[in-house]
Write a structure and sequence with these properties.
Layout (H helix, E strand, L loop, with lengths): L1 E9 L2 E6 L5 E5 L6 H13 L19 E8 L5 E8 L3 E5 L2 E3 L9 E6 L4 H5 L2 H15 L3 H21 L6 H6 L1 H34 L5 E6 L7 H18 L10 E6 L2 E2 H4 L2 H21 L6 E7 L7 H11 L4 E6 L13 E6 L2 E5 L4
Parallel strand pairs: 3-13, 3-14, 8-12, 12-13
Antiparallel strand pairs: 1-2, 1-4, 4-5, 5-6, 6-7, 9-10, 10-11, 14-15
Helix pairs in contact: 4-6, 6-7, 6-9
Length: 366
């Protein structure tokens, strides 16, 4: 469990130290005062990335040179450790004051699932949003996935660079050099993604039944531009498409461009789904992700749910089912703009008021 968190020069926080967090924590405050920034800080300590931006510089407080995040984590057996992530001139990671050089050795001290009003965009938005969700989910249950994806993206970046250089000189040899790597890593990525979507799909079907009381035909369909995504197909296609890639100056196929779609009663939700159906599917997607995390121990890494002001738009039945699944999390952090009705699930929570980058614990009932 996360016992405490320390933020310095992170988003709108100059300095904040919360020392006594509970199993369920509620942050109340108006929009724009820093509630979501707190959740973002916790998420960053879990994965060393933000769920809101891809730019590290966006996370530092305006007018400062960087930021620092630290957190004390207590295991179920009572063992304490302190993790730190500092980004100033360079990145510094530490666990119990010991430097950590590789991100893969730092991430997943705890695992997070974020529930946000923007989750509906996973269903209705661009393919890049869906790929980002899927990649983060897989990395939370399969440790070797993130290094695999990073190796693919590094090779892709280098191949694309040589494709652009090819406008002025012959770089076909350099371009070809990265194709076996892309074929090897890319086919593995497709395999991980396809298997994960199949598993997620089954959980979503069960969750839809639990929440609505009805059984619907639901599936997640992985979409590859062409073929099945195996290594030999990729190598063959590189030979076929290399000239076109040189012309367009980027790699025109591969898992970096793949997609998946939500099929509900034999129809694509992105094209034909109502707002209510898309919202239900996105909620069940995140709940399914959390359930699957619970099936993978990850060396005792606990599951932390970050719920960013989403319960207000849920009806009573859906909210009840939502809270029921959240019981599987080891720890939950909620944000609300107003004081919530204290359902049984929320009773006994730690309650904090957030205003202008200041956080104060409220003693007693809300």
């Amino acid at each position: 469990m996360i016992r405490g968190i320390y933020l310095r020069n992170f988003r709108n926080y100059g300095e904040l130290h919360l020392k006594t967090l509970g199993k369920i924590n509620i942050f109340i405050g108006r929009n724009g005062h820093g509630k979501t920034n707190l959740l973002e800080g916790l998420f960053f300590l879990s994965l060393l990335r933000s769920f809101r931006t891809s730019q590290i510089d966006d996370l530092r407080k305006i007018g400062t040179g960087g930021f620092y995040l630290g957190s004390e984590i207590i295991s179920e057996s009572g063992i304490s450790k302190y993790i730190e992530a500092e980004y100033y001139d360079r990145r510094n990671l530490k666990i119990d004051k010991n430097p950590v050089s590789r991100a893969s050795e730092f991430i997943h001290n705890f695992r997070t699932v974020v529930f946000s009003p923007h989750d509906i965009l996973i269903v209705s938005g661009s393919s890049s949003i869906r790929r980002k969700f899927l990649d983060m989910h897989i990395s939370s249950v399969i440790p070797e996935y993130m290094p695999l994806l990073q190796e693919y993206l590094v090779a892709l970046q280098k191949r694309n660079a040589y494709l652009r250089m090819g406008q002025g000189r012959d770089t076909s040899k350099e371009v070809r050099a990265f194709e076996p790597i892309l074929a090897d890593k890319g086919s593995s990525i497709v395999k991980f993604r396809s298997e994960s979507l199949f598993k997620i799909s089954g959980h979503i079907s069960m969750l839809i039944h639990e929440i609505t009381g009805t059984r619907r035909n639901f599936s997640l369909k992985y979409s590859i531009q062409k073929g099945t995504g195996n290594r030999e197909e990729y190598l063959s296609r590189f030979d076929q498409e290399r000239s076109r890639d040189f012309s367009r100056q980027y790699s025109t196929f591969g898992p970096h461009l793949d997609d998946f779609e939500f099929i509900y009663d034999d129809k694509s939700l992105k094209s034909h789904g109502s707002t209510g159906q898309c919202r239900l599917a996105s909620l069940c997607l995140k709940l399914a992700s959390m359930r699957i995390m619970g099936e993978f121990g990850m060396n005792g890494s606990e599951i932390v749910a970050l719920v960013d002001d989403v319960t207000g738009e849920l009806d009573i039945g859906t909210k009840k089912a939502f809270y029921s699944v959240l019981k599987n999390a080891n720890q939950v952090f909620f944000t609300f703009t107003e004081k919530p009705f204290m359902d049984d699930f929320l009773k006994g929570s730690k309650i904090f008021e957030v205003a202008d980058g200041q956080v104060v614990e409220i003693k007693g009932d809300v």
